[in-house]
Known about the structure:
The complex is a heterodimer of chains A (124) and B (508). Chain A has one domain (4-123): CATH 2.40.50.100. Chain A has a 6-stranded antiparallel sheet. Chain A has a 3-stranded antiparallel sheet with strand order 4-6-7, with no helix packed on it. Chain A is α+β, with helices and mostly antiparallel strands and 124 residues long. The longest helix of chain A is centred in the C-terminal third of the chain and has 11 residues, at 113-123. Chain A has 2 helices and 9 strands. In chain A, 15% of the residues lie in helices and 35% in strands. Chain A has helices at residues 25-31, 113-123, and strands at residues 4-5, 10-15, 18-23, 34-38, 45-46, 51-57, 61-65, 70-75, 97-101. With 508 residues, chain B is an alpha/beta fold. Among the domains of chain B are: 103-366, Aspartate Aminotransferase, domain 2, CATH 3.40.640; 410-489, Aspartate Aminotransferase, domain 1, CATH 3.90.1150. Chain B has 13 helices and 14 strands. Chain B has helices at 68-79, 102-108, 111-114, 126-143, 155-172, 190-197, 215-222, 250-259, 354-390, 411-414, 420-429, 457-475, 496-501, and strands at 6-7, 41-42, 147-149, 180-184, 201-205, 232-238, 263-267, 287-289, 310-312, 325-328, 331-334, 406-409, 436-437, 446-449. Chain B has a 7-stranded mixed sheet, with helices on both faces. In chain B, helix 4 runs parallel beside helix 9 (354-390), helix 7 packs parallel to helix 8 and helix 9 packs across helix 12 (457-475). Chain B is globular, with a radius of gyration of 26 Å. The two termini of chain B are 44 Å apart. The interface between A and B is small, with 10 and 7 residues.
Amino acid sequence: MALKYTNDHECIHVEGDVAWVGITKYAQEALGDLVYVELPEIGKKAEKGKSVAVVESVKTAAEVYSPVDGEVIAANDAMPGDLELISKPVTQGGWIAKIRMSNPAQLSGLMDEGDYQSFLKSLD
Amino acid sequence: MSANPKIVPMISDPVSSPPPRGLMYEESLLWEKERSDHPGVDLPQPAGVKLRTGQPARGDIGLHQVSEPQAVRHFVRMSTWNYSIDHGFFPLGSCTMKHNPRLNEKMARLPGFAHIHPKQPQSTVQGALKLMYELQNWLAELTNLPGVCLTPAAGAHGELAGLMTIRRAHEMKGQGHRKIVLTPDSSHGTNPATAVMCGYEVRSIPTKENGRLSVEKFKEALYATSPDGSDVAGMMVTNPNTCGLFEMHIQEIADLLHKAGGYFYCDGANFNALVGKVRPGDFGVDVMHINLHKTFSTPHGGGGPGSGPICTSAELAPYIPVPTVVKEGDSYKLQTEEDRPETMGQLKGFQGQFGMHVRALAYMLSHGADGLKQVSEDAVLNANYILSRLKDDYHVPYEGPCMHECLLTDKTQKESGVTTLDIAKALCENGYHPMTVYFPLVLPGTMLIEPTETESKESIDKFITVMKGFAEDVRQGDTEKFHDYPLNTPRRRLDEVKAARSPVLRWK
């Protein structure tokens, strides 16, 4: 399944009923070099639009919002020690958290690649 | 034997610091200086004194000994590494770095103010209490908000006191279930932080489109989870906002909020744009903090200390912290919890930063009402002058006129690889403290410039020339140097990413 996007610049890969959440290249460039990632605890309840992790750069700290409701079933423990992972594709180490969705229908409200690219254009 | 301590002359300068570069001195810590057995002050040996605990009356307690000249040089050398408003132009937007008049210092050093103790009987410090009472009245008059508490120790502490006042009011009125606080996305970071500290949930209002709050977006936020906004405790808004713009619809927004039962907290950080011109109580503010260390010229930075009194509407006045000063007949008195049972209680030891109260009142009295009005007029004029002279060189995201500060971005220069950070470092190289950078967060690469009324046209013109020079260099393609700046500062550009990723939290 192709990647999905939010207008808060999260990108999502879906496998079964699990959403893998990372941040887009645009978000990475806006933040600059990351200095810290605060991961969620396993078992944490994720709520659509609520913070599920925090990414911190020299400039700012930004919330990563959960794109769906559900439960955090995995956090990328390797990432705080290797912050370059964030620049990898979500499916290849760039994910921050995996969320088991309780309402997969919420996915239909997310953008696909084309929508996201035109959304980015509208930001300039 | 002389009873007077005698100053020991410096025998040699055992400073082990690296040699100076020109007139710029590196300076080691006092602890790293070559150890000397010579105490700084030679006190006579106390004869025939025995401590009950058995130690010698005076032993070595391991503190480093330096003579007075060594100590003086140590601190003066370190002070030369600082940059302050006493050095030069300090256009740090939203921080209002204005001149601290020396008259204020003179007043604060009067023995009747400087040599009193907060625990003295109130009958012996009537003059000090009268001063606080008059300062309360000035703040009440300038804001049209009659409930004044002077005790908060800084701006963020004032915010906390203000929001706790709102929380207390809701609790006392059976409205404790209200859990949402609204803030624009351009707000100072302390606003949402304060709301969270008070147990509220923050709901952000987008303002990116035109830099101001719109009634429509405000309504969306107000009614997002309740059709009548009855879950909203209040909003925290800075006016003028952090883009340097006056909130045009503030009255209508405040009315909607009040109708929903919420209170309007105004962040007073930008009061310098309004003082003497606009009374926040007139545009619907219920509680506001005032930074005496910004608007009213008390020292700022380097520990100040700050002072962030709050002013509230009559409705909220019963809930503000104690103590506050009241006049009873001809005498002045500090009110306590017994006098005001509905108060939230005491937030700060004693009466707050009394020395700052003296300085702020001295500033008000020396300017007078007309003078304060001119302060804000000049501050706004200066910012608009900078905006109009730089608008063809830098991107102006929101069209002016602005209030006391103007907002630019690096959009134009960034195309050539020169960013706001590079421009800030180039300003350091040219002897300026940079403006506020990358704030507000609503746009990328922001530069927020606040000249205050302190600066003369000549000093502002010099700054403008420097800023125009940067823009011209970028247009000419002369951009490499920007990535190397600053060259002539005590430290060159630091690796901020490395510093943040692997911080070294001790000296050497």
